[in-house]
Design the sequence.
């Protein structure tokens, strides 16, 4: 593993039921340059915001709830802007645990494949949901935010049936008492 790479994350939610199969930890990455109209996470767009953490440090935070979760979900913000340190992080996840990995990216599948080092990154991902959020094609109940987005099962662990019955939204109360809305369509709450 390469050293001295830093991730910039916006938030880590330890336990969620609305961001993939089973209970999952969700990591919102900080920084996105894609500028989708109607983006529901504008606070995650600035590249300089969020908090810095090393791949090993983020793994340690995931492990605190490691026996309660089926996997992790990476969303944003734009995860692929941090593909190199995320690859390091996911290498640790896959080497040390049986956790599954889901990634939401605003890049299309073709754009993702064209990125440097995407092969190594995608080898560590179980499901990739790809494509910009298009508010004119907003959808619910299909584990994506707009119907133009494409879902890619990158290994045999999951299939389309595993994405049925995932809540489109949930509301959680954080340790500091604040309400957190999350899911592929949190606005419906
Ligand atoms: S890709 Fe996601 S975070 Fe980036 S602008 Fe679009 S909706 Fe917002």
Sequence:
């Amino acid at each position: 593993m390469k050293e001295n790479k830093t991730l910039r994350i916006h938030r880590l939610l330890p336990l969620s039921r609305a961001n993939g199969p089973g209970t999952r930890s969700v990591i919102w990455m900080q920084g996105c340059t894609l500028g989708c109209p109607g983006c529901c996470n504008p606070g995650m767009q600035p590249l300089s915001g969020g908090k810095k953490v090393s791949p090993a440090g983020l793994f340690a935070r995931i492990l605190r709830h490691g026996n309660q979760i089926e996997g992790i979900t990476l969303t944003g913000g734009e995860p692929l802007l941090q593909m190199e340190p995320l690859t390091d992080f996911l290498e640790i996840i896959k080497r040390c645990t049986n956790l599954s990995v889901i990634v939401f990216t605003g890049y299309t599948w073709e754009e993702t494949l064209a990125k440097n080092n995407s092969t190594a990154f995608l080898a560590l991902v179980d499901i990739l949901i790809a494509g910009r959020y298009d508010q004119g094609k907003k959808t619910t109940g299909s584990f994506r935010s707009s119907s133009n987005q494409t879902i890619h099962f990158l290994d045999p662990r999951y299939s389309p049936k595993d994405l049925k019955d995932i809540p489109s939204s949930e509301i959680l109360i954080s340790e500091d008492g604040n309400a957190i809305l999350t899911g592929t369509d949190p606005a419906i709450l």
